[in-house]
Write a structure and sequence with these properties.
This is Glycoside hydrolase family 127 protein. This protein is of the alpha+beta class and about 650 residues long. The protein has four domains: about 30-190, no CATH class; about 230-425, no CATH class; about 425-530, Immunoglobulin-like; about 535-650, no CATH class. It is built from 14 helices and 25 strands. Helix 2 crosses helix 4 (about 95-115), helix 6 runs antiparallel to helix 7 (about 165-190) and helix 7 (about 165-190) packs across helix 9. It is globular.
Length: about 650
């Protein structure tokens, strides 16, 4: 999942080595602990269980260690590789020898399951062996190449973290199989687009890890071959040649993986036309199709708004029309927002603009953290923005988190993201450190200009806007820069520079980087203060479901209200006053400390109102004040079933 652009010709930034940063306290340290102690072992149990996922059992059948038929999802292999990433990272971080041995045993099993020609996808291996009519590369929706791509990424991470070649050797053989497959497709013109194309990023990482250019060339070939697909669809982003894409469409995971892979390719081989496409897609998403939480892919099923009028094209888990952002039925698959983070990081590496880390922060702190319970053991596949008291219809997925969901792609994807979250704290260029996601941490920094030192960050972020950077343990004192990210939400604050002078932060500074130069590193201290008042956010009037409503945000966090937070019959009766004030207060849910907001709302008197009528005469009988609490959106659905709302109607009050 991560990307190593240290030696990439066209990358303007790179992340630090995997073990160079550690969270020391606060929000992200808590999340890392939750992932290691809750998510990683719980997911392992799910994959190991023959009766739950059947994933490891499928590998055992392929390896000749068990008998039976294939069971589970067609993308289970790839989901297991995603879990392996989080396990590899967690085991190394915590020096967990027992988990490291188990990972080696899994790698040995995977190697035994692999075919002589390098092919490795359990459904097809078992199908061909039992002659049940299932064979390799017969249906793109069998996710074979998706499985390959996640194997490539996991194997590259394993090599970097452990130094071992055992997993990478398996990946090399499968990548070589894929090379033969694509070369044949290029020769014959019979091309299929692999759905959820994880292999673009995976192949670029194979190139970076092995230093074998054939994998970079294969990544480029795989992307270029999309243009030769016959009868392509908007759902799969292959109806039009890639360089003719004008708007972001279709399946959100597939789209975000595609553009992340193209951005990875551009860090190695520049292409002006691909660069222009990425900019268009990013602007299309952020101007028209992104939720306030960073969720994306609003629709479960529908018809492409851009296809041929006479030939309807179904879209699934997809970007729809501009401003089509429903709340109750918001789909927002967790994997889509994770794909967005992957895409944003790769865009930052080639462009070095603050807007990309603004998006990483929004998605990571809001929709991605909301996808898992506070104990790390239950998950959302889709991420709604409102849970109503009563629905007259059944949703596709449960309205509360589940331990196991049939489409189990999201939990391990989230596990690898959170286990590796420290990779998003800092990036480096030739002579500067670029601040990404803020959090209490310690980083070992080595710049190409020769500077070598430890950077300590102390902060209560995202609940507190004060951040202190201190340089210690300087081994090589070379003048260097520290590029402070001023978030898009920041309207006021200050940066205390090493010499004691101050840079005032104003609204026009939002979503930019401010470079602080240190002539002498030893003893350098930089203090950053972002003012964090609670604020109202309004949506574009074209977002019909949010018209005349507001959401409450504070700093980088989106807030919501749940049933336990207000004593009313239903939140449908509530209004926010235009002049309401919300004050921060310490709060705790399931042992996790956080900052809630307390204030007042207006509750409508509903005398004579029929809650079941579709239409009725408008009556307004006045309002009364009620006490309310808002909690960070990521913490919702941890206190039982009930209503939840982000967007609330607003009433003008002098």
């Amino acid at each position: 999942m991560l990307t190593d652009t240290t030696r990439s010709k066209y990358a303007k930034a790179a992340q630090l080595p995997w073990n160079a940063v550690r969270w020391t306290a606060g929000f992200w340290a808590d999340c890392e602990k939750m992932c290691a102690q809750g998510m990683v072992p719980q997911l392992k149990h799910m994959f190991d269980s023959k009766d739950i996922s059947h994933v490891v059992e499928n590998f055992k059948i392929c390896a000749g260690e068990a008998e039976g038929d294939f069971d589970g999802t067609v993308f289970g292999d790839g989901d297991f590789y995603k879990w392996m990433e989080s396990a590899i990272y967690t085991a190394a971080r915590n020096k967990d020898e027992s988990l490291q041995k188990e990972i080696d045993s899994y790698i040995e099993l995977i190697g035994k399951a692999q075919q002589e020609d390098g092919y490795l996808s359990t459904k097809q291996i078992i199908g061909e062996r039992s002659a049940n009519g299932i064979s390799r590369m017969g249906d793109v929706n069998d996710f074979e190449v998706y499985n390959f791509g996640h194997m490539f990424t996991a194997a590259c991470l394993h090599k970097r973290v452990t130094g071992k070649d055992n997993f990478l050797n398996i990946a090399v053989r499968t990548a070589d199989y894929l090379k033969n497959l694509y070369e044949e497709a290029a020769r014959t013109g019979e091309v299929q687009t692999a759905v959820c194309p994880s292999h673009y990023m995976g192949l670029v990482e194979m190139y970076r890890t092995t230093n074998d250019r054939k994998y970079l060339e294969l990544a480029r070939m795989a992307i270029e071959l999309r243009d030769s697909v016959k009868d392509g669809t908007d759902d799969n982003q292959d109806r039009l040649p890639l360089k003719k894409h004008e708007k972001i469409v279709g399946h959100a995971v597939r789209a975000n993986y595609l553009y992340a892979g193209v951005a990875d390719l551009l860090s190695e081989e520049w292409d002006e036309e691909y660069d222009a496409v990425l900019d268009k897609m990013w602007d299309s998403l952020n101007a028209h199709k992104i939720y306030i939480t960073g969720g994306c892919g609003a629709l479960y099923n529908g018809v492409s708004p851009y296809g041929n009028f006479f030939v309807d094209q179904k879209i699934h888990q997809a970007y729809g029309y501009e401003y089509q952002l429903p709340n109750i039925t918001a789909y927002n698959e967790t994997c889509a927002s994770i794909g967005l983070v992957m895409w944003a990081l790769r865009m930052f590496n080639i462009k070095r603009e603050a807007k990309y880390f603004d998006m990483i922060e929004r998605a990571m702190l809001n929709v991605n953290m909301a996808a898992v319970s506070l104990d790390g053991k239950r998950y959302f596949y889709e991420n709604m923005l409102r849970r109503a008291k009563k629905l007259e219809y059944e949703m596709i997925w449960p309205l509360t988190r589940s331990e196991y969901i049939l489409s189990y792609c999201c939990p391990p994807n989230l596990s690898r993201l959170l286990s590796q979250a420290s990779e998003y704290a800092y990036s480096v260029s030739e002579d500067a450190v670029w601040l990404g996601m803020y959090g209490a941490s310690e980083a070992q920094i080595e710049l190409k200009n020769g500077a070598k030192f430890t950077l300590k960050q102390s902060t209560g972020y995202p609940y507190d806007g004060r951040i202190v950077l201190e340089i210690t343990d300087v081994e090589k004192d070379v003048p260097s820069g520290f590029c402070v990210r001023i978030p898009g939400w920041a309207e006021k604050g200050r940066i205390v520079l090493p010499d004691g002078s101050e840079k005032q932060i104003l609204g026009e500074d939002a979503c930019t980087y401010y470079r602080v130069d240190a002539e002498k590193l030893e003893g350098t201290r930089i203090e950053i203060i972002f003012d964090m008042p609670a604020r109202y956010t309004a949506a574009n009037p074209m977002v019909e479901e949010d018209s005349c409503q507001v959401a409450v945000e504070r700093g980088p966090l989106v807030y919501c209200m749940e049933t336990p937070d207000v004593d009313v019959e239903t939140m449908d009766d509530l209004l926010f006053a235009s002049n309401a004030v919300f004050e921060p207060e310490p709060f705790e849910i399931q042992g996790r400390s956080m900052t809630a907001l307390k204030g007042k709302a207006l509750c409508q008197n509903r005398e004579g109102y029929d809650r079941n009528a579709l239409y009725q005469k408008f009556r307004f009988s006045g309002v009364r004040e009620v006490d309310v609490r808002l909690i960070p959106y990521f913490a919702w659905d941890n206190r039982g079933m009930g209503e939840m709302r982000i967007w609330m109607p607003v009433m003008y009050v002098e």
